[in-house]
Each structure stands twice: as C-alpha cells, then as structure tokens.
Write a structure and sequence with these properties.
alpha+beta, MetI-like fold, six-stranded antiparallel β-sheet, 13 helices, 12 strands
Amino acid sequence: MTDLAALKSDADALFGRKKMIAYCIPAVILAYFTYVFFAFDVSGLAQRAKWDNAVTLVSDSWSYKTHVTQSHRGAGGIDYAIEGEKKGRYPEGERPDWVTGPDDELRVDLGDGTIVTLLPEKRAEIDIPDFGVIETALIDGKIETNLPKDTPGWINAGPRRVTITTDNGRVTLTRSKTEVFRYAGGWELFWFTLASPYHDRSVTEIAFGPQLDPDRSNLRGAWEDFWGNAMWRHADVMWAIGETILMAFLGTFGGALVALPLAFIAAKRFTPFAALRIAMRRIFDFVRGVDGLIWTIILARAFGPGPLTGALAILITDTGTFGKMFSEALENVDEKQIEGIASTGAKPVQRYRFGVIPQVMPVLLAQILYFLESNTRSATIIGAITGGGIGLLLTQAMQTQKDWEEVAYYIVLVILMVMAMDWFSGWLRGKLIGRSEQSH
C-alpha cells in the first residue's frame, strides 16, 4: 500500500508539472507577443502607413509618365518628355497625340475625362468631371486659384504649389513651371528611344521591311540602338549583372580555398596541439561572427568602393563559415582509407591528398555551390554599399524616387539571375558529385 501511495504521489506530481508546463508555455508566448505589440508600436503602424505612396510606387513599377511641361521662366516654352528626362524628350515638332491645339492654348487630355488647358500669362484651367473647372494663375510670385477653402484629398493647394491628382495623371503648378503627367501602362522606350528610327516599329518591319537607317542594316541598327539605349542602359545593366556574379564567384571560391587548409588546423584529428586548434576555431568564429555588411563597410573605408571590395567581404565571411564546416567534415573522415594510403609509404601531404580530400570533397562541393547561389543574392546588397554590380544601379534608381519602373526591371533581373545560378549550381553539383537518382 505504501508503494502504491508513493507511485500515485509521483504520478500526480508528474501530471501536475506537465499541466503547469502546458499552461506556462502558451502564457509565456502570449506575454512575448504582447511585449512585441507594445515595443514595436504595432497599433500605430497602420496609422503611420502612407498607403497612397505605396499605391503610387506600385503603379509606377509597371507604368510610365509622359511629362508636358510649360516653363514660367524667361520666354517660356513647352517641353514633352517621357519620365521628364532629356533622354526621353520628343524630337522637335513632335508631341503625343493626346496633346492638341496651339502653344498659347494647349489642351492636354489625361484620358479620364480631365482636360488641362495651358494658357498664356502663366495661367491654366483644369476641367475635372463631376468637380468643375479649376482656374489657376501665377500672380506676383503666388499661385492664385478659384478653389474653395475645403478641398478634397486629391487636391493639395498652397500659394507656392498646387497639386491635383486624377486617376490617369497629375497636374503640378509651381512658380517655375506647370507640369502635367499622364500615366500609361508598360515600360515605354524599353526597346528604343524616341530618337531611334526603330521606335514604334514592329518586329516584322525591322526584320523584313525596307532599310530604315541608310548607314546600317535593320538588324544591326536595332541591336545597337537597343543595347545602347540611353534610357534603360541595357549594356550597363548587363555589365552590372556580370560584376555581381563575379563578386559572388570570387568571394565564395576564394573563401573556400583559404578555409580548406586552415580547416586541417582546426580539426582535432589532424592537429594535436590544442592551443593552435582552439585559436584557429576562434578566428573562424570571429570572421563569421561579424556580418558581411560590416566587413563591406570596413573594407570600403580601407580600399575604397568597387566590386573587388565586395568580393573580399564575401571571402572573409565565408572563410569563417567554410572553416567551421570543413573542419567538422574532416573530423568524420574514415581512418581506414588514410591508413591504406599510409601503408604505401605516402608522405603526410599525400595522405591528405589521396586519403582525406576524396572523402570530404562531395560534402565540400555541395556546401560551396550552395553558398555560391546564396552569395549571388548577398552580392546585390553588398554592391549597393561598395558601388558595384546591380545593387548600385538598384540603389540609384530608388534614390531618385521616380524611376520605379527601372527598380522593377532590376528586381526582375536579380530574380532571374538567382534562378539561373540555382539551376547552374544544381547542374554542376550533378556533374561533379552525382545526383541521388543516378545511384538507384
């Protein structure tokens, strides 16, 4: 009876502990999420979010803007340009077909029913359906309008700047100019700029039609104008992609080459001196413990910006990671194969070359190829800091706050680059160490 009572008491105590754990773990998780909620001010996040800006950025990624600009300085004048850039300016005497009338009474149709009329003496009229006609004029350095005091949210009016946003465009009036933006879908001028004779020509016309440029064949001229496109800079972008891949390649394989001999020093089986072995492991911990971006900043200050600096940052970080993984792989090699090589009279270096390396090489190659794929992504971010690769172009496009279609283009290229490197590393892994299905 005493034993049964003791067993019952132990069982009750065990169930009691399990019950307490079952309640405590959810309580701890709930307390943690409650702390996160208040620490990161999740409730205020929605209030601080600027959804209009987010919608604008997303729409800018798949559309483009054509600017019609009337200058208020000097003799004035009207300019037409894609994205407002000189490289996208319409040739003299040409303009979009949705712009009509003479320069002193220019009508701009935004396509959603809104008509903007640019008038002399720095005046403009904006006819908006279901709202009425907004009259503006620049008088004594101030913008005067007929707007009421209470305006809807899509109108932002002040004495120095008036902005009117519609579904298809935007009108901005300042003391220096009146600018009308009209949005349209697609990446305009992606293939050819307005100055190219191949702009707005179909593939059939270019391939089989009459020669459009007397100095060049159609195929040659189309390729040269596409590759040298001043707006989208395809040649510079492809060069930047090559720099990014080169940074990842040099950093990954350079780190592997440095880490392999050092891994023998960190492996207990090959280095009996504990002090040397522990010191090498701590070095590996140090170089991989400092994030690659930190190494990038340090090396950029030391050697200046450039893709080589990015490659060195990847090399240093991967040396620590590879050193740890390689030393662990070396710890698990089969001693019998090494003894067989030693029985032939092989020297230590030969024993390592023929008895150790063949055993660990499949594991080492798999890890190196995986890191090559991963470092391709990392090289994009590192390039933004060191001033090299596609990361630099991506950062520059973001900083302008207007070239979001180029940002989308670069992001698509980065994704395609990573997919290509994933396929390449898988193919190379299959060629070098075989695929699992090949062994069945």
